[in-house]
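Quick question about two entries, pasted in order.
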Amino acid sequence: MNSSNQSIIEFACRLAGEINAKAVLLYDEVSQDIPMKGNDEACFDTILVTKKLENKAQKSNYFKKIISIPDVSVTRLSQVKIAVTKGIAAGLFGKDDKLVCLTGLSRFGYIDSMFIIDVGREFEVFTPEGASETFDGVNPEVFDALLNIALELAEQGREGRPVGTIFVAGDHERVLQLSRQMIINPFMGYKEEERNVVDKNLRETIKEFSAIDGAFIVKEDGVLVAAGRHLSAALESKDFPKGLGSRHIAAAGITGVTNAIALVVSESSGDVRIFKKGKIFVDIEKVVE
């Protein structure tokens, strides 16, 4: 193993023990030289964060859990935020947990950054009950799929042009009451099994419809209810960050009066923001080249 990687991992494991961390998160792209055969064991409960799952079976013997993230260009801190957010949605982490996160640049292949994440402080909208209440019944697989689509849209846009859109998941009946259709609903008349966001065959269709003004409305189980929906709930909070546009205001408004989660792709910056209870749950920043 690369000597610097080994030293950093050993230090991270000691630190994780001292602060009573839940786990160490290690990014696959900077951990290629870690031995994962025979009787090797991680020095702490270690979760692998990876963009590739080809060697999942082999690596699952060494790592406690594996979190898959999309292959998109984001800042190092945003890499961490994506993994932690997915872990929260999957029930791996709660508001009282601390995490030691190790990452770096794939082209260098070694660890160059360490983050200590206090989940409850970093993600301030937790309810007393924790992650299960924060995500309010939205299937973790559904949230995972929506986040992947949002991140891919943020990086790729459509046909070379940036796009902005909103995905609203959960509490769909209440969301429909507080919104109106701006165009003919492109998903109307299709069977539910043909319009589920978990189906990877549907992703290009979703990306095409992202050019339509308005929001996507998604059931807790992933069924797409509508696209091109205008969100009517008004935002009353004076604490909303300045400089964010109408999509963000709409997302904050609808999540402030429903139990839904909203994912916003910013057309201007390419950032992805997740809203819950009228507030930004997490802000994922795109790498500026």
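Here is the second entry:
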Amino acid sequence: MDKSEKNNEDETSSFIPGPSSLSVIIAGGGTGGHIYPGIAIAQEFKRRDAETRIMFVGTARGLETKIVPREGFELELIEVSALKRVSLIERLKSLLLLPKSFPAISSLIKKVEPNIVIGVGGYASGPVVLMAAFMGVPTLVAEQNALPGFTNRLLARFVKAAAISFEEAKNFFGEKAEVTGNPIRADFFNIPLKEPGAVIHVLITGGSQGARAINEAMINALPLLAEEKERLSFTHQTGESDFNKVRTAYEKAGLKAEVKPYLEQIVGEFSRADLVICRAGATTVAELAAAGRPAIMIPFPFASDDHQRKNAEAVERVGAGRMILQAELTPDRLAQELMWLARDPQQLSRMAEASKKLGHPDAAANVVDLAMRVISQSNV
């Protein structure tokens, strides 16, 4: 046994539930889109009872190894890997790991004795929630997307309940589903609605690494926007690799722009924006709704099961945004959409109001309420 395994064992053995407080396992991770909703749920449990024992279960390959400890929660690592969107060899390796992971997961659940296990998506979510269900532990999944991920679709028949963010996801969970919203940082809900002024400020972001397809389309759209240079200003988050190229393009076009490789204060940037050009991940969509910001969404076409497209379609359907598929993302199309909205402030305002209606400021509380009902029903 190496040192890290020994430390994990020590932490687990010290994780003993008190006589009255709850103990909760939150399983999953990999990306921030899975982890941050889990963090929000954990914080809501702790807000209600500071003595609640929270343990996250994830893998060494995910962002949970950085985010969860930083947020002050315990993290147990298990060995599982992806089964979907990987090569046949990688899938076989993942399948071979499962028999090894199940006894370890079973042992962990026995030690922690959780009142409920909540899956938030990602590699660890499936095996942990499935094993908990087999062991008779109450289970719940939190699904952030309009089209549930592969793991949660498999878990649908085993879990007691599903906390969903979009009405469309009800089709996969039936009566087990409850629309709770996607738990995100409360700061986004404190952003007031913004009436467009004489200058429309556009925030362009492709996530922490940027989005090359969006960057390239915008570079080539800039000359087409020159006639609107007095009407438009930009903040463009590019990622490191495209930073210099994008900054130079704005300078040549003579458009007002702040070009940054990374945005440290994303809440502040949302507050300034009249319009956001972005991908359509679940967290981004939830942040747009919380802030009440209209968007031009370019779904990442290689997302699992094309779920970003489903998210964008759900937003577009209620009039809160516009969708451009990446295959249709030309400079002309992007410039046309942008100018159409910039020239119609009333349309931007209507889209902002529709976006705000999609927000769920009590999402974390709703998820915990649902979890408490599951626990209560299981104790009857």
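Reply: The chain has two domains: 14-182+361-379, 188-357. The mean pLDDT is 89. Hope that helps.
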